[in-house]
Design a protein that fits this description.
globular; 13% strand; alanine-glyoxylate transaminase activity (chains A, B); homodimer; PyrdxlP-dep_Trfase (chains A, B); Aspartate Aminotransferase, domain 1; three-stranded antiparallel sheet; alpha/beta; 42% helix; Alanine-glyoxylate aminotransferase apoenzyme (chains A, B); 13 helices; seven-stranded mixed sheet; Aspartate Aminotransferase, domain 2
């Protein structure tokens, strides 16, 4: 058996986070995390829970009673959504146009559901006609789509049209809003979304660990009338209802500090105003986009479904994406990411999220990226990029 | 749709946490949580992951390679253990002597397992003979027991004897060590425990959100040779192996800040030395126990299976437990808890865990409890209690 390991003080490097998340965290949120704890059943914590639920409703643009932070990272909120709404024997329709549709399928199968697919290439949104065709063919009980695809930088337009098709077929709609919440226009109620889950570490700029989830009454009715319980006890919403609902009964120990952090991150959203925040993301990411285009690079997504929070930029010819990413990290303490799946090696994924969506970060990113690409021999005009970004900021 | 909620600065009360967890957090751990984030795939974070795994092995007293923090609170680690080790059609033997055996049963059923029980009253440990009988009768594939029962204040003795019985029957042993890790002697390898899960917010005094789990090769072999995947994608250890194992491939976004916190909390364990830490808990809780006994109260558990980290104290005659608990919270900012299940209304549950297991907290607890009980008309001698505690500290 080993002796006590010699582990030194925590001194991680001071990164600038412009990848697919986490984003830079506002110092106010970091400070909130150093607050001493109260118990998870303390009356003062119940009050904090109420405040977080109110702030989440505001941010999701919903009046849903069942709006809570799930005790885990974004994938836990995703599994809470799918694992509760999909019952054994149900059919779930999922998209094939990115990494996270595949994860939806995996979770739906483990929940005991059948999976059917609506196709679109990686880097394209779903078309309403393809969704309508899939509904006619498969008659699914649940339809999942990704509002903001972190793997491709695509924003799904026409959400109301998609939900309308689903509701004509009496299906519930589950929206992945991990990379849109708090940064890109998202209107859960107005757009007819029944269930939405999200991550805190993207446009909310909150450390991961407590993840937003909202369900309307239709969805919650299905959850509460299941014939057999959800397959996860930890994520069973009929049990979590006891803790986050009127009863406030013990289910599991909530991640108290993460709830503190989420509260502060959401207060920042409320102070800025949700619509102003969406506009800021569009402006900051717009300056970033102008810069990379002026350098001579291409965005992977056309403007009509460009996702401001996640900019997929085509890797210039003759350049190795991994080398560029490593050099940015090593020489500039700057994180961006490469492509996944079908887009591996073809795109850079550059986040512009929350506290990272500000002039200082965008300016730094465009300048650093331009320098490294030029140094790697890419046929780009770094100076033109920097100038175009500066003009837009 | 509501306007932006008006939510003020985070100002929770300044509690002294002497309940069943969370315990008071050391300021060094709180400070670690205000550290800016790096990405969950950053090379510097990989190094931090290695350090946390080493520190967890030290604390669990194991050489198990598969030793990780699960991305959720203690119940997530519990479900990761049971949901991966129990396959559909397996039989799991669980205890009936406390609240958490019932939770084991619930999770085993949802994993597709059959549940059989080994009986002991609430407030008693399991006897090896009852376990042997249950094995002979049911031939279970998996045996779960609770090393430190938070609901009853009972420490399970004879662990090696229990695991020996299980291994003679080729069963795997899963130990709930939520309330023992880092505070009460626990030797995973020496005692023949195959799988152990824990919580960070008890004797490790770390905010909840990343929870210790360890599996030996026998257990991991079973997990990796399952015929059908675990029912939770989020907690599937065969997938988490990709992230925490040699590959370090993306599975889900780790709760980075919680990992920072756990690292600092475990550094404190390593600095103190695990055996010294066990002794400190015994000494501090011993002073607490001497105080409540000198006042004239009774412990629910006899000394031979007393659990220092969770002291179950019989509620004196004529006193309402809820009133005492509320007054301690309101008048003393001091958290303790009442009984659960079969012991509801009969015991106070007083934690003595991690950073809360120190003279200042124990002295405050004994004095405050004595004052409130006397004021409520209990037949106790508060002064004698305070004196007995002071002598032992």
């Amino acid at each position: 058996m080993q002796d006590a390991p010699q582990v030194g003080e925590l001194t991680p490097p001071n990164r600038t986070l412009m990848g697919p998340g986490p984003s830079d965290v506002n110092p106010r949120v970091l400070r909130a995390m150093s607050t001493p704890l109260v118990g998870h059943l303390d009356p003062s914590f119940i009050e904090i829970m109420n405040e977080v639920q109110d702030l989440l409703r505001y941010t999701f643009r919903t009046d849903n009673k069942w709006t809570i932070p799930v005790s885990g990272t974004g994938s836990a909120a995703m599994e809470a959504a799918i694992g509760n709404v999909v019952e054994p024997g149900d059919t779930m329709l999922v998209p094939t146009n990115g990494y996270f549709g595949g994860r939806m399928a995996e979770m739906a199968r483990r929940a005991g559901g059948e999976v059917v697919e609506v196709d679109a290439p990686w880097g394209e949104p779903l078309s309403p006609s393809a969704v309508a065709d899939a509904f006619d063919e498969h008659q699914p009980d649940v339809f999942g789509f990704v509002h903001a695809e972190t793997s491709t930088g695509v924003r799904q337009p026409n959400v109301s049209e998609l939900t309308g098709i689903a509701h004509e077929h009496d299906a519930l709609v589950v929206a992945d809003s991990v990379t849109s919440i708090g940064g890109v226009e998202l209107r859960v109620d107005e757009w007819g979304i029944d269930v939405a889950y999200a991550g805190p570490q993207k446009c909310l700029s909150c450390p991961p660990g407590a993840s937003p989830l909202t369900l309307n009454d239709d969805a919650m009715d299905k959850v509460l009338s299941r014939e057999e319980p959800a397959r996860s006890w930890y994520l069973d919403l009929s049990l979590l209802e006891g803790y986050w609902g009127d009863e406030r009964a013990y289910h599991h120990t909530a991640p108290i500090t993460n709830v503190y952090a989420l509260r502060e991150a959401l207060r920042l959203v409320a102070e800025e105003g949700i619509a102003s925040r969406w506009k800021r993301h569009e402006r900051m990411a717009g300056a970033l986009k102008a810069g990379v285009k002026a350098m001579g690079m291409e965005m992977n997504a056309p403007d009509e479904y460009w996702l401001p929070s996640l900019n997929a930029v085509r890797v210039p010819a003759g350049v190795d994406d991994g080398t560029v990413i490593s050099r940015l990290l090593d020489e500039y303490d700057l994180e961006i990411a490469g492509g996944l799946g079908d887009l591996s090696g073809e795109i850079f994924r550059i986040g512009c999220m929350g506290h990272s969506a500000r002039p200082k970060n965008v300016t730094y990113l465009v300048n650093a990226l331009g320098s490294v690409l030029a140094d790697e021999g890419a046929d780009i005009d770094a100076a033109a990029g920097a100038e175009a970004t500066a003009e837009k900021l």
